[in-house]
Amino acid sequence: MNLKTKTFSYDDRTRIFWSLIFISCLCLIVYVVAVNFTVRNTVVRQTLEVEEANRVALIGDLEFSYIALKNKVSLDLAYARGFEEVKSPTYISESVSRVLTFNR
Predict the structure, then answer these.
(1) How far apart are alpha carbons 19 and 24 in whole angstroms?
(2) Residues 6+ apart with CB under 8 A from 8
(3) Do the beta carbons of residue 60 and residue 68 sit within 8 Å?
(4) How many CB atoms lie within 10 A of CB 58?
(5) Domain for residue 96, yes or no?
(6) What pLDDT was estimated at residue 11?
(7) Cβ pair 44, 36 in contact under 8 A
(8) Is 17 helix (H, G, I), strand (E, B) or coil?
(9) Count of domains in the chain?
(10) How far apart (Å, rounded) are the C-alpha atoms in residues 40 and 47?
(11) Is residue 32 one of the residues assigned to a domain?
(12) How far is Cα 37 from Cα 22, in angstroms, rounded to an integer?
């Protein structure tokens, strides 16, 4: 069996060493940038969650205000605001006509 060994020259070893250093630094930079993006996105998400909670609470308060105002409406208030009871109501027919008209 013939075994051949390959020897690296000093220049090759130096080039390999600096290549590995460069790749390690590049990986470290990519890692730091990825962690930075992750932290920023987490902070933005938490801010949005707080804002959403505040808006949901505001909507709840507005709904309660609407219900309270809706319960205050009565016939006496409507009459005081100028509304009148209709003597002969007009209804829209529910029958479907098959004719399409265009009035000018």
Answers:
(1) 9
(2) 16
(3) no
(4) 10
(5) no
(6) 85
(7) no
(8) helix
(9) 1
(10) 11
(11) yes
(12) 23
CA angle 17, 23, 27 (to 5 degrees): 145
25-51 as b/e: b if 16+ CB within 10 A: eeeeeeeeeeeeeeeeeeeeeeeeeee
The range of the structural domain enclosing residue 75 comes to: 10-80
Report residue 47: phi and psi, to 5°. -65, -45
pLDDT (0 to 100) of residue 37: 98
Locate all alpha helices (DSSP H) within 3-87, ordered by sequence.
10-72, 75-80
Place of tokens 């309270």: 68
Residue 103, helix vs strand vs coil: coil
User: C-alpha angle with apex 80: 74 to 85, nearest 5 degrees?
Assistant: 70
Residue 69 in domain? yes
Q: Write out residues in the chain with pLDDT < 70, as ranges.
A: 1, 96-97, 99-104
92 belongs to a structural domain: no
